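Page 47, continued from p. 46.
Same chain as before, 71 aa.
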Amino acid sequence: MTFYQFLMTFRGKTVPDDQSKLADWVFEAHDFPKHSNDYNEISDYLEWNSPFPDALRTFDEIWDLYRHHVE
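Result:
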């Protein structure tokens, strides 16, 4: 499972939180590296295209969940 696929499980919450906001934004971002599982590549992308102030912190939180999910 790619990080993108894992991230998509956070989409569409009735009451949006930062995780669902990031997932919904990435879903609409056509140039997001969807096939990548490389932390640095995804982090760099988000640094240049951050959709909201806490997006990088939120990414790190979801990345930690992802790492535990795929181990």
